[in-house]
Amino acid sequence: MPRRVTPLRLAALLAAALLALPATAQTTPPSLPGRVEVHPLRSTTLSGAEFLRGGSGPEASLAGELRLPPGPATTRVPAVILVHGSGGISGSTDLWARQINEAGMAAFILDSFAGRGITSTVTDQDLLHSLAMMVDAYRALDLLAAHPRIRADRTAVMGFSKGAVAAVYSASERFRRLHGSQQNRFAAHIGLYTPCNVRYQGDTQVAAVPIRLHHGVVDDYVPIAPCRDYVERLRAAGADAAITEYPNGQHSFDNPAAPALVSVPNAQSTRNCRMEEGADGAVNLAGTSEPFAQKTSGCVARGAHVGHDPNDASAVRANVRTFLTETLLR
């Protein structure tokens, strides 16, 4: 008669079997935040012209997820607000948040899309203007500044592609006066593959905090050249600005969920466009009086590439972590 195996005996056998597995067969559990909170966020939805004129728009009910690192409940910690790109929040955003937590800082994942009924702006950037997401970032800063666990003076903003416009240009003193708050300002600004091809009035008059851009050299979705030019103009104006270039970096090169290279045939790209702000909030094609429009300007292209590069992804994560640690944890 076969011997009966009790549940306790079965558990012991399974545990022994797992311990006997080689180390390479066992997985390391992912890092977990110390606490997760979901916060509602009130913002407004502005067109580009309304933003640049300092106007107002309809209210928007948004939300964000705050991930606090492990530690005493009474300890205040620095924070990084993460502003997603045209595709919305992704697994890469989650990975950045985990790594920020591992470094001892809080991460706030801002969702600018769901509350507005948007899933993606990849094929239609008119669904939400990039500048409107800057208002969301300012409101997220105000929310975190009032949080009992967050260091209001050590909160940075980091954005990706469309969201990098909010992250980088929120350093503008003009934009902060128009849409930010008097008492709160970001401690640092970080942009990954930032669209830098619009020259705004006074865009080199920025806060005296570091601005860091990270960009792939072979990006054909959002080319690097305009960001090189913008950083050069910022530095000439005395700003603490720098760009780090990644030789094999396609668009979204930091995203491990992306393939090595994939075509996005319907993506709207302004890679051939250079624009500048004119009078009364109008953005024209550079050197002309012709207004820029996503759907009608001849410089707007369709189709681009995205792709993950493991070496450049590892480098940008290390570079950003070092920068945040030196800037926010000093």
Which quaternary structure do these chains form?
single chain
Number of helices in the DSSP assignment: 8
Low-pLDDT stretches are: 1-28
Cα distance spanning the termini: 69 Å
- CA radius of gyration: 22 Å
CATH-defined architecture: 3-Layer(aba) Sandwich
Mean pLDDT, nearest integer? 91
Protein name: Dienelactone hydrolase family protein
Pfam families: DLH
Keywords: Hydrolase, Signal
Domain Dienelactone hydrolase: 72-261
What's the structural blueprint in terms of helices and strands?
Elements: H1 7-20, E1 35-44, H2 48-53, E2 59-68, E3 77-83, H3 91-102, E4 106-111, H4 132-145, E5 150-160, H5 162-169, H6 173-179, E6 188-192, E7 198-199, E8 211-216, H7 225-236, E9 241-246, E10 262-269, E11 275-277, E12 283-285, E13 301-306, H8 310-328
Parallel strand pairs: 3-4, 3-5, 5-6, 6-8, 7-11, 8-9
Antiparallel strand pairs: 1-2, 2-4, 10-13, 11-12
Explain this structure:
The strands form 3 sheets. The chain has an 8-stranded mixed β-sheet with strand order 1-2-4-3-5-6-8-9, with helices on both faces. Strands 7-11-12 form a 3-stranded mixed β-sheet, with no helix packed on it. It has a two-stranded antiparallel ribbon with strand order 10-13. Mean pLDDT is 91; it is low at 1-28. The chain has one domain (30-250, 310-328): Alpha/Beta hydrolase fold, catalytic domain (Rossmann fold), CATH 3.40.50.1820. The protein is of the alpha/beta class. The longest helix has 19 residues, at 310-328. The protein has helices at 7-20, 48-53, 91-102, 132-145, 162-169, 173-179, 225-236, 310-328, and strands at 35-44, 59-68, 77-83, 106-111, 150-160, 188-192, 198-199, 211-216, 241-246, 262-269, 275-277, 283-285, 301-306. It has 8 helices and 13 strands. Helices cover 28% and strands 25% of the residues.
